[in-house]
Amino acid sequence: MSCLICQKPTTSFNYGILSCNACKIFFRRVILGKPVAKCSHTASVPLTCRFCRLKKCIESGMSFQSRDIQSDCATLTKWINNLKVLYAHRKLLILNCRFDGDPTIEELAALPGPLIFQSRPKHYKMGILEWGVLIALSTIDYFKKFNFLNLLELKDQVILIQQSFSDFDTLSGSFKAVELKKAEFLNPDGTDIFLKMDSGVCQVLENNIRCKLVGRMCELKITLEEFLLLTAVFLCNPALSDLSSSAKSILSTYQRVYTSVLLHYCMMTHQQNGTTRFTDLLSLFHSVKIAHQEIRTHYYFCIIQKPNLPFRNMFAHEF
Ligand SMILES: [Zn+2]
Ligand SMILES: [Zn+2]
């Protein structure tokens, strides 16, 4: 019998499949680890290329269960720290950068490396629309560092980015308010997230968008670790429409892994109330979808009043 990934002789089962010890260790180290550089091999070479090897592991059916992490606190800590590093980088971009240009999601997904931001002069005044663009682009830059995104075909990457970045922005903006102990979601410089319209847009709707999700996250007292794991669970969503079957399978594997990690984390931090905590956190998925609908409705109200509102290519799919 031989390892399904590297073909070396083995008789052991690891993470659900026949695999050698070296491939087992590789998988554990890499699946949620630091970004693995995407290769351009047309035929898979799992023996010499880390990217091909990771892809082969997932295609062969390797996956984590909660019990695989239970005895492995060091790996769990490493994975969470990895998310923290990526998220801290996103924060730095938002605090210090601006972005020139008007790329489409296709162009952003196809970029082989990270996005190029320009540094922002100290007293530069950001407009409301410019904040929206910068935040969205820093989110896309964050997404591009996830190994599972790079494992997808370009077409699937576009679908995933399009259907996920604004929800992440809403969750992240609301989480920021929770961290600052504020009741509402504002821009990073404390300005309102909405453009002022001459005749105003429904106040109730605006207040819902600013406060409802923040209120729910505040009630839950969500922590940074929970926020990062939860948004990773939401991000690798195999149920998005129009994904290819290979994308669905990669995303299912990753969603199972992140879900197991989040559940394990909740059990560790909340002991016998761990599963309740886990369910409460997952319920934020519904809350953010409602917020998304409200934001779209708000946008339509604005467009009716100001048909010439500057429009960015990256938001084209929304409307
Ligand atoms: Zn192997
Ligand atoms: Zn390769």
UniProtKB/TrEMBL annotation:
Residues 1-69 form the Nuclear receptor domain. Pfam families: Hormone_recep, zf-C4. It is found in: Nucleus. GO terms for molecular function: DNA-binding transcription factor activity; sequence-specific DNA binding; zinc ion binding. GO terms for cellular component: nucleus. Gene3D superfamilies: Erythroid Transcription Factor GATA-1, subunit A (3.30.50.10), Retinoid X Receptor (1.10.565.10). Transmembrane segments: none annotated. Residues 100-319 form the NR LBD domain. It comes from the Eukaryota. Keywords: DNA-binding, Metal-binding, Nucleus, Receptor, Transcription, Transcription regulation, Zinc, Zinc-finger. Belongs to the nuclear hormone receptor family. PANTHER family: NUCLEAR HORMONE RECEPTOR FAMILY-RELATED, NUCLEAR HORMONE RECEPTOR FAMILY-RELATED-RELATED. This is Nuclear Hormone Receptor family.
